[in-house]
Design goal:
Layout: H1 3-18, H2 25-45, H3 53-63
């Protein structure tokens, strides 16, 4: 299944859960389930390949503070 279909399924599940009224101990469980869905959605938004090491080294070098 591709990422877009997974995102749509996660979004649909999240929408269904938000439409349910819960209280007490169940509210905490539903909130945790919603957080898990949000985390899964965020992971799908991350790029497939990590950024090049060269770019990371450049960012670290630029962020160094030097005595002038």
């Amino acid at each position: 299944m591709d990422k877009e279909k997974l995102k749509k399924q996660i979004d649909g599940a999240y929408s269904m859960i938000t439409g349910i009224y819960v209280k007490g101990a169940d509210a905490k469980r539903v909130a945790m389930a919603m957080q898990n869905l949000e985390n899964a959605f965020a992971e799908l938004d991350e790029p497939d390949e990590p950024p090049a090491k060269e770019g990371k080294a450049k960012l670290e070098k630029e962020s160094e503070v030097t005595d002038g």
